[in-house]
Every structure is written in structure tokens, then in C-alpha cells.
Amino acid sequence: MADLSRLTVFVGVDGGATKTLAVSADAKGNVIGVGESGPSNYHVVGLDGAVKNINESIRQSLAPLKREVADVVTLGLAGMDTRHDFEVFEREAVSRILGRRVFVRHDAEIALVGATRGEPGVMVIAGTGSVAGARNRRGEYARCGGWGYVVGDEGSAYFLGREALRAVLWAYDGRGEQTVLTEKVMEALNISSPDEIMRKVYVEKMSVHEIARLAPLVTEAARNG
């Protein structure tokens, strides 16, 4: 059996606003281990929180090797949307990541490479947020969307959750059709009337994640017609 402690180990990290997944592998692509932890979008959990969760997922993925530092780590992170984001993360976080060499990319780019195995193609992510990416035969990469929950993220879990709240309130007003979502949303939020949604959203400050967690109610209602 090969001495795993002597292997050159690569770790790929997919970090989003909900969770972080790390996979370690050798130079031939043989998977060694997998790790999972909390969110690593630094806009959501801050730089310290992002580093903590990234490193926790890396540690888990390296557990079979009984080592804590990978030779090469590539981070595909949600929230890396501007040059400023990359500058901040590389200046204040990269040196704390458990890798001898660390590369940072947007999560859409690594998802595209993973889905197409490096071939030309188009990919759409619809998680807590949403973004699309594409690469042509010349290797040119382009991204569309991913502008965040305030001005973008169409089709994301947050978008569906927000539209569910809106549909319930419009039905309550009489401006929209009655919807099965009313009962489903009230049960999920543990409220007795749609007008309590205001308290949940504005007083109790429902987070992006809490609103996004309503998305399955929409897909369930759609499946049921």
C-alpha cells in the first residue's frame, strides 16, 4: 500500500452561503477524503468565519492522511464577485488557509469546470443565490448574474422564498389569488396570520438563509399542481 503521508495532496473547496464542501485527492484524481462544514461566503459569516469553516472542511478531508495541511488548495467561493473581494480575501485570509499553495476562484468557475470536465459549456447554479457561467473553446470565461439578493439572484432559493412570502401577502390583501402557500408558510414560520410576516421579516430580522429555506415549499406546491 502506498504511503499516504508522502502523497502530493490537492484539495478542492466549494464554499457557499449555506455550506462548505472539501474533497482531497492525489495527483491522479483518486479521492482521499471529504469534509463538510458551515458557510464560507465572507459577506455572510465574515473573514474569520469563512476561514474557520474552510479549514474545518479541509481538516476533515485530510483526516485519512493524519495531516492538516494540503500541498495545493483551490477555493471556489461564493461572494468573490469583484476585484475588491479577491484583494481582501487574498490579503487577509489566504495565509490562514491550510494549504501550502492556495488559489481563489469564484464558485461558478469551479462548478463549470467540474460539470464539464474542462470542456466548453454553460452552467447555472441555483442555491441560496444564483449565477451562470460559461467557457468557450478558446478558454474564455464569462459570468452572468450572481449580483446578490438585493438586486439579483433570480431563480435562487432566496428568490423563491421571497416570492412565497409575497404571494401569501398579496393573497391576504386580496391583490393576488388565494394560494396553498399561505398555510404552508404560516406553519413553517409558526405564525397564525399572514400579517405576522411583517414581524418575522422586519422585527425578528429573518435572514437570507431563513427566507431561502422556504423555497422547498414552493417546489412542493408546484409539484402538487
Task: Explain what you see.
The protein is of the alpha/beta class and 225 residues long. It folds into 2 domains: 9-117, Nucleotidyltransferase, domain 5 (2-Layer Sandwich); 157-223, Nucleotidyltransferase, domain 5 (2-Layer Sandwich). It has helices at 42-62, 83-92, 107-116, 157-173, 181-189, 197-203, 208-212, 215-223; strands at residues 10-15, 20-25, 31-37, 70-77, 99-106, 121-126, 130-135, 141-145. It has a 5-stranded mixed β-sheet. A 3-stranded antiparallel β-sheet has the order 6-7-8, with helices on one face. Strand 1 and strand 2 form a beta hairpin. Helix 4 (157-173) crosses helix 8. The longest helix is centred in the first third of the chain and has 21 residues, at 42-62. It is elongated. The mean pLDDT is 92.
Short characterization:
The protein is an alpha/beta fold and 225 residues long. It has helices at 42-62, 83-92, 107-116, 157-173, 181-189, 197-203, 208-212, 215-223; strands spanning 10-15, 20-25, 31-37, 70-77, 99-106, 121-126, 130-135, 141-145. It has two domains: 9-117, ATPase, nucleotide binding domain (Nucleotidyltransferase, domain 5); 157-223, 2-Layer Sandwich (Nucleotidyltransferase, domain 5).
Using brief descriptors, characterize the structure shown:
225 residues; Nucleotidyltransferase, domain 5; five-stranded mixed sheet; three-stranded antiparallel sheet
CATH class of the largest domain: Alpha Beta
Number of separate strands: 8
Average pLDDT taken over every residue: 92
Rg estimate, integer Å: 20 Å
Report the total helices.
8
What is the subunit arrangement here? single chain
CATH homologous superfamily designation of the largest domain:
ATPase, nucleotide binding domain
**What is the global morphology?**
elongated
**Ends apart, CA distance between termini:** 55 Å
Element order, helices and strands?
EEEHEHEHEEEHHHHH
Estimate what percentage of residues fall within beta strands: 15-25%
CATH topology of the largest domain: Nucleotidyltransferase, domain 5
CATH architecture of the largest domain: 2-Layer Sandwich
> From the helix content, strand content and strand pairing, which structural class follows?
alpha/beta
Unreliable stretches (pLDDT < 50, length at least 5) are none
Largest sheet: 5 strands, mixed
Helix content: 25-40%
